[in-house]
Amino acid sequence: xxxxxxxxxxxxxxxxxxxxxxxxxxxxxxxxxxxxxxxxxxxxxxxxxxxxxxxxxxxxxxxxxxxxxxxxxxxxxxxxxxxxxxxxxxxxxxxxxxxxxxxxxxxxxxxxxxxxxxxxxxxxxxxxxxxxxxxxxxxxxxxxxxxxxxxxxxxxxxxxxxxxxxxxxxxxxxxxxxxxxxxxxxxxxxxxxxxxxxxxxxxxxxxxxxxxxxxxxxxxxxxxxxxxxxxxxxxxxxxxxxxxxxxxxxxxxxxxxxxxxxxxxxxxxxxxxxxxxxxxxxxxxxxxxxxxxxxxxxxxxxxxxxxxxxxxxxxxxxxxxxxxxxxxxxxxxxxxxxxxxxxxxxxxxxxxxxxxx
Length: 357
Ligand SMILES: Nc1ncnc2c1ncn2[C@@H]1O[C@H](COP(=O)(O)OP(=O)(O)O)[C@@H](O)[C@H]1O
Ligand SMILES: [Mg+2]
Known about the structure:
25% helix, globular, 5-stranded antiparallel sheet, 2 domains, 34% strand, CATH 2.40.50.140, 6-stranded mixed sheet, single chain, binds adenosine-5'-diphosphate, binds magnesium ion, disordered C terminus, alpha+beta, Rossmann fold
């Protein structure tokens, strides 16, 4: 076990310092550093296989890092067993006890801790209320819907009053409608329970909806740690730009500070500090194009699809296909002019992106 630092620490509730992990000689996580505050909803977002579950298992104590230190409340918890960590986990498969009813599933951990029947009763009742399942005590697990089972699993974890709850893709087994409802509910539960959530998902929409802070992970390395807003609007590299939402990534040239050209036209932009006349990538979100007369780009609408409140167009400009979202009605086969304001142009280069990571 690694020595605890002697000086008083005033930092995050959970902190990871230089965490690395390999399996069979293959690096899975590389130099992971981040901290989570009390009452924060932190999401680790990344594609399948990037190391999310491994990272969560190390925080939970089910796996030990090869190097680096994990702190909880300023104390090193490397080597501390899972049930001595005051951290609970809700697994992807809920692993409820199918032969026990809802009450006994939730009470299980409290009984192990030999709490009094009266205390257990009250805690189970409170936990059920928190997940909107009051009155479900006697129900058998098999008679519950997927969403209800999910909530029992959360209640079972919350009833132990952990400081931190780890959730590994807990909504992936649910259908889309239920998933959206549960996203809202989970956020409410987190706020009401007043505990820290560390949530793992490969679903960018889920990450952006619920979190106070998002960590984007790829190939075992952190790409960006930021608010959902900044992850969405200010991706630091092409991976984040591409993974978080449908961005247009267009080849361009950085003329000078505040000037960039792409698709045969010159635009004013907010970006500065790139090499003059260097090749860059220009990121533009589909909803940030302005359509209509006077636009600098002229394009041809290849297809138009109505998606709820917006029309999603594929517009061909020169030989580049752009995805454009608009609330105005357009039909395929017509021509259209496009423009974009400086604020909505986002310039990136591979080199600059590497510096920032
Ligand atoms: N116990 C293990 N032994 C060997 N390889 C593992 C083990 N656990 C995970 N891996 C590998 O580590 C990589 C990351 O896995 P995981 O953390 O489960 O990713 P994610 O949760 O992001 O999908 C994968 O290539 C996986 O096969
Ligand atoms: Mg996983």
